[in-house]
Amino acid sequence: MKMTVQPGKRPGLPKALFNRDLRMSDIEINEAGAVTVTFIGDDIYTKNATQRFSITLSQNEIEMVVEAIGLDFGR
User: Fold this and answer.
1) Which SS3 state, helix, strand or coil, does residue 60 take?
2) Residue 73 belongs to a domain
């Protein structure tokens, strides 16, 4: 997975915060089917500093992603 950041109000070059394959230990699924991906990425401003990032997608949002990329899981 690659995660980048860039300025929101003006054009700018993206900076990679994270760039490696996800591991199963990076992923949690709760009882409602929401998926949380958590990883340690680079800090935007401070060299050699890191931040813990978490992204949570509901089951509905996961289904939207699957539909967007055209996968069919037997529905």
Assistant:
1) helix
2) no
Give SS3 for 56.
strand
Number of domains comprising the chain: 1
Name the residue type at position 6.
Answer: Q
Asked, for residue 44, whether it belongs to a domain, the answer is: yes
User: How far is CA 15 from its chain centroid?
Assistant: 15
pLDDT of residue 72: 67
Residue 33 has φ and ψ, to the nearest 5°, of 90, 5
Mean pLDDT over 8-19 rounds to 92
Say if 75 falls within a structural domain: no
Taking the model in full, what pTM does it have? 0.79
Query: Which residue matches tokens 């591991």?
Result: 23
Rounded distance between C-alpha atoms, residue 37 and residue 23, angstroms: 10
Residue 61 belongs to some domain of the structure: yes
Rounded CA-CA distance 55/6 in Å is 18
Distance of CA 44 to the CA centre of its chain: 16
